[in-house]
């Protein structure tokens, strides 16, 4: 075994990145969102980078995990899971269910652990690729496409964060009605060339969100459209929306919460249903697939446990004739590069992937990734093909250090209470 591939150093840098006031069922995005940047360095001095969720509960696992990794080889990707199990056994607070609900479905301790592992897996693959002079997609078996298509991720949005909240300005403007959503979509096409659109719903009454989708269909005839209320609707409401928008939707995403409700909707509509909420772990696949509850699974390599697990999920979907694409949460360029590499290797990817990246005005890279015609070119440079900008990383880490702890754990409901002190995240189904 090549001693040069041994991991000799791991550096974890929690950061806070600017996020616009995007609305969802829980509330509104905080002005700054936590992310964790992971660097692994080998004995031969090669450094690989990874990125994952950065809330305290992830950091609490990432630190002991990083210590355990020293002395292992960056090729030992299967061992990442067993090493994480050892860490989890030592950390009583991550057993069982840590947080119910949220926009990524029920968040189990398992998903939390896998989200941490994924950041390290990506960093190891980046380092390995750099050591071998190969791009990450080659380490995953090779690309089957030269570029990966992404959709414009539209949000209801305020013009600015609530008064008195420290935040960066953005130039997207407000979007609170159909005209605002269409204007936002136009900006996405002008700036990035996207041709496929997803609207984050569950914010306004369903009739208003249907009107926004109708307005998009008129403004962009024939373009793929999706609506995702994050499980905010009852089965009956979901069916009404499906009937109303069936002729223009590519799919409805998580209209109702959980596999039983999704199965009920799916049984009574021909509109395909996608999810990033009821199928989020391998354990959830069997019930959802046997009940035919979902027609498209949106993988998020973070909580599925990395790029290789994403490929396994894609193979499972192919086996069962279920579509696959990608989900996204607030993320930076390292994650976009990782998503692009793995997406490039998935033969059965037939829907544009989601990405929040255009909403992030800040990054930790020397060069931002770019979208052309709504697509990101698959890099053939060694590793992920990205380079850390140390000054930017230090700046965003300083923001995290200076925070009094209020923003270190993403809480969209708390952010909403800055505008509306009486806000509580509505129980689902809301409509
Ligand atoms: O960023 O507000 C948001 C999204 O709603 C996100 O949290 C979801 O996880 O994008 C996600 C989704 O597709 O459900
Ligand atoms: Mg979703």
How many β strands by DSSP? 14
Ligand catalogue: D-glucarate, magnesium ion
How is the biggest beta sheet arranged? 7 strands, parallel
What is the rounded Rg? 21 Å
- Binned strand content: 15-25%
Average of pLDDT: 95
Q: Order of strands side by side in the largest beta sheet?
A: 7-8-9-10-11-12-13
The tally of helices reads 14
How would you describe the shape? globular
* Computed structural class: alpha/beta
Helical proportion? 25-40%
SSE arrangement, N to C: EEEHHEEHHEEHEHEHEHEHEHHEHEHH
Segments where pLDDT lies below 50 for 5+ residues?
Answer: 96-101
- Intertermini distance: 59 Å
Mind sketching the topology for me?
Layout lengths: L6 E12 L13 E11 L4 E7 L2 H14 L7 H14 L6 E3 L7 E2 H24 L3 H4 L7 E3 L2 E4 L22 H15 L4 E4 L5 H14 L5 E4 L6 H11 L3 E5 L5 H9 L5 E3 L9 H6 L5 E4 L1 H4 L2 H14 L2 E4 L6 H13 L29 E3 L12 H13 L9 H6 L14
Parallel strand pairs: 7-8, 8-9, 9-10, 10-11, 11-12, 12-13
Antiparallel strand pairs: 1-2, 2-3, 4-5, 6-14
Helix pairs in contact: 1-2, 1-3, 2-3, 5-6, 6-7, 7-8, 11-12
The structure holds D-glucarate and magnesium ion.
D-glucarate binds next to loops.
């Amino acid at each position: 075994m090549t001693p040069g591939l041994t991991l000799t150093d791991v550096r974890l840098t929690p950061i806070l990145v600017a996020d616009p006031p995007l609305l969802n069922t829980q509330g509104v995005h905080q002005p700054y969102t936590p992310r964790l940047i992971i660097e692994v360095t080998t004995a031969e001095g090669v450094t690989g980078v990874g990125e994952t969720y950065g809330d305290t509960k992830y950091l609490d696992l990432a630190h002991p995990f990083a210590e355990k990794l020293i002395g292992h080889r960056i090729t030992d990707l299967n061992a990442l899971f067993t090493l994480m199990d050892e860490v989890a056994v030592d950390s009583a607070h991550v057993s069982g269910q840590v947080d119910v609900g949220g926009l990524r479905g029920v968040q189990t301790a398992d998903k939390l652990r896998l989200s941490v592992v994924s950041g390290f897996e990506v960093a190891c693959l980046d380092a390995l690729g750099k050591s071998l002079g190969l791009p990450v997609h080659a380490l995953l078996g090779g690309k089957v496409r030269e570029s990966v298509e992404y959709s414009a991720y539209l949000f209801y949005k305020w013009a600015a964060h609530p008064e008195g909240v420290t935040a960066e300005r953005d130039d997207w403007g407000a979007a609170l009605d159909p005209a605002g959503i269409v204007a936002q979509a136009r900006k996405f096409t002008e700036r990035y060339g996207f041709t496929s659109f997803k609207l984050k719903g569950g914010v306004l009454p369903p009739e208003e969100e249907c009107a926004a989708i109708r307005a998009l269909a008129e403004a962009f005839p024939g373009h793929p459209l999706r609506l995702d209320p994050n499980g905010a609707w009852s089965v009956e409401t979901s069916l009404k929306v499906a009937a109303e928008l069936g002729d223009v939707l590519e799919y409805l995403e998580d209209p109702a919460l959980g596999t039983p409700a999704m199965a009920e909707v799916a049984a009574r509509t021909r509109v395909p249903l996608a999810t990033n909420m009821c199928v989020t772990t391998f354990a959830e696949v069997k019930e959802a697939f046997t009940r035919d509850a979902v027609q498209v699974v949106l993988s998020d390599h973070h909580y599925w446990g990395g790029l290789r697990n994403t490929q396994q999920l894609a193979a499972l979907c192919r086996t069962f004739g279920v579509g696959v694409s990608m989900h996204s949460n607030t993320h930076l360029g390292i994650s976009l590069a990782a998503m692009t590499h793995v997406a490039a290797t998935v033969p059965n990817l037939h829907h544009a992937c989601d990405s929040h990246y255009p909403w992030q005005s800040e990054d930790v890279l020397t060069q931002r990734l770019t979208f052309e015609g709504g697509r990101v070119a698959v890099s053939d440079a060694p590793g992920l093909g990205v380079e850390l900008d140390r000054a930017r990383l230090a700046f965003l880490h300083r923001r995290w250090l200076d925070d009094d702890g209020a923003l270190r754990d993403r809480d969209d409901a708390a952010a909403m209470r800055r505008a509306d002190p009486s806000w509580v995240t509505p129980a689902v189904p809301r409509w």
